[in-house]
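Justification of resources, computational component.

The compute hours requested in this renewal are based largely on the per-chain cost of generating structure records like the one below. Each record pairs the submitted sequence with a full structure-token output. That output is archived, and it is also reused by downstream analysis tasks.
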Amino acid sequence: MTNKEFYLKTLKDESPRFKKAIEALPEDQRTHKVHEKSREAGNLAAQLAVQWKAISGVLKSGTPDFNPHDMENQSKADMLLKFDQGMADLQEEVDKISEEEWENGQASMGPAWTTKKYDMAWGFLFDAIHHRGQLTTYLRAMGAVVPSIYGPSADQQS
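The structure output for this chain reads:
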């Protein structure tokens, strides 16, 4: 299995886990914060909804296609629509990119980060996994049910 094939497999495996985390967010608690310096729960969930578009931009043009305003004031329904579309588009982009471009194409976020396309794609995926973990800790703090991610959560065990 190539790096690109493993990335696509990982996206397909992780996709329902991301969606469950977004779905678990109570609509009326999107502004919940666990600390004054923390991000709002809805902002974290919205990032999980739009991060895939950023990675698609990396693969297509070498630059993340990311607008932080896409994370503002999103309803859960909007987030889920953006998630479904973004994840489907990203899986298509990964499938389409050549092994040569995946392995050797350059990606850049200006002076902050310049690397290979595959490296940035993995980095953004790991970042999303990190933010999914943040969101699930918020869920418990706000009294919502933490969904099963890699097995049953304590909230789902009888």
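The chain has one domain: 3-141. The radius of gyration is 16 Å.
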